[in-house]
Amino acid sequence: MAQKPAYEELEKKIKLLESKISFKQARESIKQSLKKHDIPVYETKETEMAVDVIGQKDAEKQPVEQVLITEHIFRRSIEESIPSGIAGIDLNGYQIYVNNAFCDMLGWSEEELIGKNYPFVYFPSKATDTDALKFELILKGQVPPEGIELIFERKNGLQFYGLVTSSDLTDNKGETIGYLISVADITLQKDAEKALRELSSRLINAQESERKHISQNLHDSIGGKLAGIKYSLEKILSEYGKTSEQLRNSIENVINITINTIEETQRIYKNLHPAILDDLGLCPALRNLCSEFMGVYFHLSIHARFEISGDSSIPESMKILIYRITQEALNNIAKHSKADKAEVILAQNGNMTELTISDNGSGFDLDDVLQNQTDQHRSIGLKSIKERTMLFGGSLEIKSTPGKGTTIQATWDM
């Protein structure tokens, strides 16, 4: 016969102990204590409140096991008074504990949750690979201190965002027997962030549209007229070959100034909006961007690699975003890194789009730069990259070590 899980044996012992104990005094004491600290108190069952057995005269006669169980009930009553959802999971992936707030948050009762194995009923049936990997962090006890954002599914099918933090559950020997997670519903916060991203995205799209309009006008109007002036001056020189040397030199100087003005105008309207992005697509635009940088910074070799079948699945607004991030990153590399090699990689893995830009330069201390302590210009560039990435719901990772180069990786879940 299979041995019953430990939590079932514990529950039996708790119920046996509860029949021998008075709870009224302890309940009122706990409530008053929580109110003094401005902690919201949920109404809980009498059998789930702290026990006053610890204060009884014959407490020293209590068996050790009974005192431990009493302490368990005491801890449980505190947990039930906290508005965050709390749940316990053992090392085998079994749900061994939930508080009332957790049940209210999800719509399932304690009986429906306790004893169930992973994947739990509140794990979304159509979860993405990313969500699955995040949930596995809980089962492995690898949740970072700042927590992770995870999607939960209620019994009625509705989903919500939860901020999950975790701590180890240990036995009396200090050995880990599971993990205790705390879940805070952050749906309103995520909805506000999404609305802000959508608004910001529309503003950026409007800005890029205006930049594109100005770029076209520069190209079609001013650029065309400057080209006309250049050709007219060249025609004058060819038709009046016997013109005085002084006049000829003056005209040649005007031609050179006109050529420089045309090139500067071309640079301005290309930076305003890369026409190649509209005409040929993202990958050719990025490859051309790398070539332009190498044409200006001769010491720098940039390799572009694309692990993507096509960019049709990438929204237009995302294409210009990726282009701008690459442009800013290469600008930082060319001006600050002292690198002679850089690499730009655009890859797609399922729903994930990744842009990685690395160099073999001098590197830097990330904290110092971001706090404007050593390099304000580079700091502005990195902050711009971060803001652009986060604006479209992406994540950014920057790795840099002095003397060992820098890698920037931006990731979006499309």
Folded structure, characterized:
- The chain is an alpha+beta fold and about 425 residues long.
- It folds into four domains: about 80 residues, no CATH class; about 100 residues, PAS domain (Beta-Lactamase, 2-Layer Sandwich), CATH 3.30.450; about 90 residues; about 140 residues, Heat Shock Protein 90 (2-Layer Sandwich).
- Helix content is about 50%, strand content about 20%.
- The chain contains 13 helices and ten strands.
- Strands 2-1-5-4-3 form a five-stranded antiparallel β-sheet, sandwiched between helices. It has a five-stranded mixed β-sheet with strand order 6-7-8-10-9, with helices on one face.
- It is elongated and about 115 Å long.
- It starts with 5 loop residues before the first helix and ends with a strand.
- About 10% of the residues have low confidence.
- Rounded to the nearest angstrom, the distance between the terminal CA atoms is 49 Å
The name CATH uses for the topology of the largest domain is Heat Shock Protein 90
* Bulk shape: elongated
As a percent range, the share of strand residues is: 15-25%
Number of domains: 4
**CATH architecture identity of the largest domain:** 2-Layer Sandwich
CATH class division of the largest domain: Alpha Beta
Strands in their spatial order, largest beta sheet: 2-1-5-4-3
Order of helices and strands: HHHEEHHHEEEHHHHEHEEHHEE
**Mean pLDDT across every amino acid position:** 75
With helices defined by DSSP (H or I, 4 residues minimum), what is the helix count? 13
Structural class: alpha+beta
Largest sheet geometry: 5 strands, antiparallel
For CATH, the homologous superfamily of the largest domain is named as Histidine kinase-like ATPase, C-terminal domain
> What is the helix fraction of residues, given as a range?
40-55%
Low-confidence stretches: 17-27, 41-62
- How large is the radius of gyration? 33 Å
Number of strands: 10
